[in-house]
Write a structure and sequence with these properties.
By secondary structure, this protein is α+β, with helices and mostly antiparallel strands. The protein folds into 2 domains: 143 residues, no CATH class; 162 residues, Jelly Rolls (Sandwich), CATH 2.60.120. 14% of the residues lie in helices and 30% in strands. The chain is built from 6 helices and 17 strands. Strands 10, 11, 13, 14, 15, 16 and 17 form a 7-stranded antiparallel β-sheet that branches. The radius of gyration is 21 Å and the shape is globular.
Length: 342
């Protein structure tokens, strides 16, 4: 298959230049998996690893690590800012366009000019990512689930798990539970209480609404809602006030990516504990470790990347400012990288 034109070290064309080649092979005679191309990048998997190739470089990742990261990039629509699959490979969201890179956020690559970046139309790259996660996910394996709650991704091609990988991220328009909005989770609509949250109270608040305001008021037990989450590390939009988004989530094991946000991001630890590893967003140098216990609040600056570790399934409230103006303001130096300056 023909390769698209591209160049080394920070090439990020836009607009009419984003004519990219996409392709997929037939199933491999030995492993049964298809291989994929997106622009100058090639992707292949075997029984244990994902193999990524670009002009001038190759990289390998354990297939479980790659699939968990790929699943989040798909489910989040490339998310805010940078999604580092690991220390080498990832994507950067420009909201309509997206960079796919190798080594761009790794000082060892950039210091010798060996980083590589290529820009794509978001919907075109997303189609390839969806095909890849579908083909490479075997029956019984759920890349959204905690390791103790799913099978293994290893081995040759063995069926699929379309039900798991086609979950849609919850994005409430106003608030969970309001008429016509995302419903509260219950046993009846397919959300049983998770094994690690058996002690969470399931009582719901009692409220009485003045006639005429039935569509304007609701209340629900957030702890109960999160105790019924069937995925990990997948923040869902549960309430919206203008551009202020509350995105709670349940966390177990490891955040599958190193997330480099393009804006400040507030974390409120609702239960248990998460240990956060903080690195410089551009170089990957370690900057801090944060131990967040129930009730703790921290703000991640816009120039770092973070990865969380949660031994016991915990509850986390992520507070996002969804304004599309913030990334440009930060890049132009018109907004700070931190939320508070002392």
């Amino acid at each position: 298959m023909a390769m698209a034109e591209s160049s080394f070290a920070g090439s990020t064309p836009s607009g009419a230049d984003l004519q990219r080649h996409f392709g997929a092979s037939a199933a491999d005679n030995i492993t049964g998996y298809r291989s994929f191309e997106a622009g100058s990048f090639k992707f292949r998997r075997d029984e244990y690893f994902a193999h990524i190739q670009w002009p001038g470089g190759i990289h390998q990742m354990p297939i479980d690590v790659f699939l968990r990261a790929l699943m989040r990039d798909v489910a989040w629509g490339f998310f805010y800012g940078t999604v580092n699959f690991d220390t080498v490979f990832g994507t950067i969201n420009y909201y309509g366009e997206v960079d796919m890179f190798a080594g761009k956020t790794n000082e060892a690559f950039t210091s010798v000019g060996r980083d590589f970046t290529e820009r794509f139309q978001s919907d075109e790259l997303m189609a390839t990512f969806k095909d890849m996660v579908s083909d490479w996910t075997n029956e019984g394996y759920d890349p959204f689930a905690a390791p103790q709650e799913t099978g293994v991704p290893w081995g040759s091609k063995n069926g699929d798990n379309e039900e798991a990988i086609s979950r849609e991220r919850v994005t409430a328009k106003r608030m969970v539970g309001l008429p016509g909005d995302t419903p509260v989770r219950t046993d009846d609509n397919g959300f049983p209480v998770n094994r690690m949250f058996a002690d969470v109270e399931q009582d719901q608040p009692e409220f009485h609404v003045e006639p005429g305001f039935e569509d304007e008021f609701s209340a629900f037990n957030l702890f109960s809602y999160l105790s019924r989450s069937d995925v990990t590390w997948n923040p869902s939009v549960c309430s919206v006030v203008n551009e202020s988004l509350f995105c709670p989530t349940s966390e177990e094991f490891i955040l599958p990516v190193e997330h480099g946000n393009d804006r400040c991001e507030w974390f409120l630890q609702l239960s248990d504990e998460i240990i956060w590893t903080i690195k410089d967003g551009s170089t990957g140098r370690y900057r801090a470790q944060v131990i967040a216990k129930a009730g703790d609040i921290c703000c991640m600056p816009a120039d770092i990347r973070h990865q969380g570790f949660s031994n016991k399934r915990s509850m986390l409230l992520v507070w996002e400012n969804g304004s599309p103006k913030i990334p440009d303001l930060i890049r132009e130096g018109k907004a700070p990288n931190v939320a508070v300056q002392f």
